[in-house]
Amino acid sequence: MNLIFLGAPGAGKGTQAEIVCDKLGIPAISTGNMLREAVKNGTPAGLAAKEYMDRGDLVPDEAVIGILKDRIAQDDCKKGFILDGFPRTVEQAEALDKMGVNIDKVIEISVPDEKIIARLSGRRVCEGCGASYHLDYKPTKVEGICDSCGAKVVQRVDDKPETVLSRLETYREKTAPLKGYYEAKGKLVTVEGQEEIADTAKLTLAAING
Ligand code: AMP
Known about the structure:
The chain is α/β, with parallel strands linked by helices and 210 residues long. Helix content is 48%, strand content 15%. It has 9 helices and 8 strands. The strands form 2 sheets. It has a 5-stranded parallel β-sheet, sandwiched between helices. Strand 5 and strand 6 (132-134) form a beta hairpin. Helix 1 (13-24) crosses helix 9 (197-209), helix 2 (31-40) packs across helix 3 and helix 4 runs parallel beside helix 5. The longest helix is centred in the last third of the chain and has 15 residues, at 161-175. The radius of gyration is 16 Å and the shape is globular. The structure holds adenosine monophosphate.
């Protein structure tokens, strides 16, 4: 089962991908997490990506497509995968098609803009393993410490208010057209993001199995 989770930043793609990948036994692949890891490790790819990420812009297609291609070639992806945050442009979607990857379903998690802003301001991520949290909706058991790996949980630089608006604009301009791209292929299913994570997870699993 190859799935794509589509949605604005903060819609809950990462959180839902973490839940669904456990249930289906396939990995969740977040290009954002992979890029943040590369930035943290100071690799050439990370250094090249950092300026785009800090501004809330997309990293150039060639770079992200290369990273994704290498990742899905790994053994743990043989039974399928969930893509969280890829594709983000029509060019990236076309690149997936050219790689011969068959996508079974594209789950769009839809959340109104006004809710997105509030969600992003409370979002926190683990510096160690990339797990996502939220001060109100999914707090860590111990303040500031990741439940899974014990590393520090922090606010992403690009979740600060000045960058959030630019990321939403980028989403509308470059990523939202993917809805039409996958709708035309009969693959798009839209789930309304709910207040409670568990409620969205029920709808997401129903959309995948339906
Ligand atoms: P995310 O964690 O998915 O919100 O991604 C964080 C940042 O990483 C984005 O704002 C982009 O700068 C970059 N990024 C992640 N995935 C992609 C992608 N598929 N294409 C281009 N840039 C990406």
